[in-house]
User: What shape does this take?
Amino acid sequence: MSNIRTDLAMEARQIYKDDNNCEVPGVEVTEWEEEEGINVSTVKIIDEVGAKIIGKPIGTYITMEIPGLRHYDADFQDKLSISFAKQLSKIVNIQKDSTAMVVGLGNWNITPDALGPRVVSKLMVTRHLKKYMPNELKAGINPVCAMSPGVLGITGIETAEIVHGTVLKVKPDIIIVIDSLASRSFERVATTIQIGDTGLSPGSGVGNTRMSFNKASMGVPVIAIGVPTVVDGATLANDTLDLIMDKLIEESKGNNELYKMVSSINRDEKYLMIKELLTPYIGDLVVTPKEVDTLIEDASKIIANGINIALHTGVELKDINRYLN
Amino acid sequence: MSNIRTDLAMEARQIYKDDNNCEVPGVEVTEWEEEEGINVSTVKIIDEVGAKIIGKPIGTYITMEIPGLRHYDADFQDKLSISFAKQLSKIVNIQKDSTAMVVGLGNWNITPDALGPRVVSKLMVTRHLKKYMPNELKAGINPVCAMSPGVLGITGIETAEIVHGTVLKVKPDIIIVIDSLASRSFERVATTIQIGDTGLSPGSGVGNTRMSFNKASMGVPVIAIGVPTVVDGATLANDTLDLIMDKLIEESKGNNELYKMVSSINRDEKYLMIKELLTPYIGDLVVTPKEVDTLIEDASKIIANGINIALHTGVELKDINRYLN
Amino acid sequence: MSNIRTDLAMEARQIYKDDNNCEVPGVEVTEWEEEEGINVSTVKIIDEVGAKIIGKPIGTYITMEIPGLRHYDADFQDKLSISFAKQLSKIVNIQKDSTAMVVGLGNWNITPDALGPRVVSKLMVTRHLKKYMPNELKAGINPVCAMSPGVLGITGIETAEIVHGTVLKVKPDIIIVIDSLASRSFERVATTIQIGDTGLSPGSGVGNTRMSFNKASMGVPVIAIGVPTVVDGATLANDTLDLIMDKLIEESKGNNELYKMVSSINRDEKYLMIKELLTPYIGDLVVTPKEVDTLIEDASKIIANGINIALHTGVELKDINRYLN
Amino acid sequence: MSNIRTDLAMEARQIYKDDNNCEVPGVEVTEWEEEEGINVSTVKIIDEVGAKIIGKPIGTYITMEIPGLRHYDADFQDKLSISFAKQLSKIVNIQKDSTAMVVGLGNWNITPDALGPRVVSKLMVTRHLKKYMPNELKAGINPVCAMSPGVLGITGIETAEIVHGTVLKVKPDIIIVIDSLASRSFERVATTIQIGDTGLSPGSGVGNTRMSFNKASMGVPVIAIGVPTVVDGATLANDTLDLIMDKLIEESKGNNELYKMVSSINRDEKYLMIKELLTPYIGDLVVTPKEVDTLIEDASKIIANGINIALHTGVELKDINRYLN
Assistant: This one.
């Protein structure tokens, strides 16, 4: 089991596979190219063995990898929204007139943490229209409500308590939570979208007892959508060192002593050593790309439009602006 | 009973008094100059007769009138925060370790409606600190939590439902709601603060069945703080016409015909006529001063600091920045 | 000559025409319905007599009146951008490879004054691309640069000095300035766009000696685009009183005394009386609709896209997003 | 000469010193503890040899290192503003009634690049007051103007051209430019302030021919103030590797082969190898801490207040709010 922090099932599976040269037991993986520039994979965790290795509950995790997401292009962005809606529909499968409640987690004052609130600000919210003017809405528009409850440091209230209190009133059929994630690789920041059907457990596994967002705590199914927006500094250093070690190993073929030395380094131990070495200098440094403002804005558009398309089956992308103000 | 729309008890009382040349029955009024530039009055509604005339529930309404509030000055602003905290304390009277929940009502995307959310963003939120590090906080800091739940058009959820759902979880001892108000006079915009102990009934009296924020609906006392930020267009026209009529009456002393004509106009009927005349041209026009961005910013600072001082008895104005980030 | 403050040539002409029952001498007016919901008129001031009455220099002023502009609809907004581009092209008539410099006037911190900076933030700026990668741009893209110089209160520098200093460096072939205007009618706020070929004279006619933005001061032709975003309080009161007087006159036919009295009021004198009466109460109150945030955002999108289409002849509306980030 | 990118004279000097175990020739360094938590050093480059090694023109560079700057505390922040004003005064030395022009460089849409515009938005701008109401200002207030000209990608105009064009009009006695810097160490991000008397050469040394901001290009002395807000990804990896190598060397004392191998790695070559290895994976990755929004806000307050104090000799920190908006 890896010590390297990641919120992505796909990444945890990759680390295990790289270290052990075999598939994770208790996990089924399917990978395919959805269309040019969009790779999709499904990690199905089928038992507790798999859950323990991946560090996530039994369930299904769809990952979209889109290296081009960072390079803004209106047409590609539209294509992505539609493609994301298609993957989301596999998991959400909303019934006609089911009420969906979308929750944008995170702190709107901290750009790399603001993905959730930004998505919510771009949603087509309709639940109140259904109630007050049912006949004015055309078929295929489902009741959607949305909120950005903030974070504990801003409200003084556990976010899950605000959400659960509201759920008791609204009685939605499904909850979709959106959150910024941490990845172990800079390549994935703002280029990967994960959709999971097991909700979200903030800070799970680090002795943190915060309330979860899942069916057990909320009473209805919780879908989680996440995009990596940060990487911890030790991870960045570690990844680089791996690259260097690979190069050293390659170049040291004739040098038995060095080869043995470098090869013998256990990569998990190495990560812990880096973490330990760095902490006095930079604390628990978490970094984000300089272009974070643009990355968050672009990712939030794609996700918001994808949710709009997936939840309102009678709506096409070109209709969405008509309802949004 | 007047048809002229106002959210201020003081203003409704003034209109009745002007029209009837006597105090409102069922109402007790006290007025004094708190300090230079700050006039305070208390309207105590003591029975249903008074409640019907004022258009508000039985209870106490403190109004601070500060003509100079619009002219930013750091020293005067500090004095105002302290003075506001003093008035607020008369109504809130928080016990040691009581939990207060502050709710900023209104739409953060519409500047004249954003007072509540802006106040909340400047509060000293401490409830989570009390819980996680009780010993690190010095005496006199009470548990305060805060939220800005948005508006129906943004969330698709009745705001009172979000608040009540959260109240059921947090179980505060008192709720303080902050809202932008409508006044019938431009002079009062951003220069008047009303504090009431009966909560808030959005759109009360206009056939609107939205949930109220009061002890009946929330289960705990609800204090409402409001500042006028808008005036409806018909009111502005009406006020001007009153000034003109006064001038005409004054100038027409020798002209019996004209004097009778102008004097005979019923001022409530006149307002309705203006409303009716204007509607085809400007709809339900509601206006705000051009400087609305600055006015909201300044008012929200004073109210936030006043709440900070009133709720945390061990804190002085100069300490507040230390806890705020 | 009217005392009523307006920045719209069309409005000044209307006031004259209403008061004098004839066309303004020295002025030629053409009016037509461009398409459903979009009325256009041209006021051509041909001599100094017309210039004095209208209060603007000899030149051409195109006014688009779009009552529906306030009701957001993505399709209508696109149609408007294209229609606005068509009118603008009549006046701008840009040559291939001419450099245009767009200047967004106004204070970005005051929402009703922020139209210019908002438009600039949505422009397709290309001058630097032409210079650094000429071959990568397809034909039909002209060099456009843009700036929002702020206002005197923010910079401490006359805005025209910043602009002229930059003009001396950039040497554009044409300057387009965008500014928020004052109208005398609330109906026109955010529903009217004026395009003029004589530049802009901030605070002209009120003894203000600030530098102008015109060919004389800048050395190249200056096109001015403006949208009314505010109305002064006295004007609003005055307009209402006009409506009331019209009704009183209508209803007082049998009442000679009253009819004479009301009819005899000179409407310009009345405005001055209102101004004088209101000033002690509200100062020089300037008001804007409560929805100002949305109005400015919508108007700035239409104008920015119209400029993008008019300046880059090889670009269609659907291409614009591709270049904008 | 080092290949490691840094905008800090102090850092370039440190690298040279670490690699060569001696002071940089042509450079004089003084270091002292200004007060608790504030370390100051002066790097005086006295000849071209020193200039070439440090990578900066002959001149004086004051560096303030304040590890505690990241931990917001209102009192410490005030102390810092005053201390920064003291250092700035050593270099600026403004004469009574000299006009200072402050220029906030950088892109306000990219948080880590927005330091300059944020500082400018908090300045006490007075040049226009001096001109329009000279008698209303008390002694000790100097004429200050300020602008945030944007960046080439936003305006399509070389920033130095906008500034120089404005300088020709305003004719200031001194220019102060503020910019975000790149550091080679994460510890320095938002904890170090550099003040230099030689202006700024954007992208100097990398074949970039952009105009400089210095006395030669502007005609008046240019002071540059900068704070590191970003680190390039390769640097972060490199620093970590240095730490690891130090540890390996320490632990490998008995292991001759390994010791020789690790010791023999040239640290500049190592950096280039890392850069080369990383580029295919992350491009020219530049990173910033997750808390970048707060760091920029705090640093801009300290610098703005320091400039306010340094330029207006008759003003104390407590007076500043009175004049600000």
Notes: Chain B touches chain A through 29 residues (CB under 8 Å).
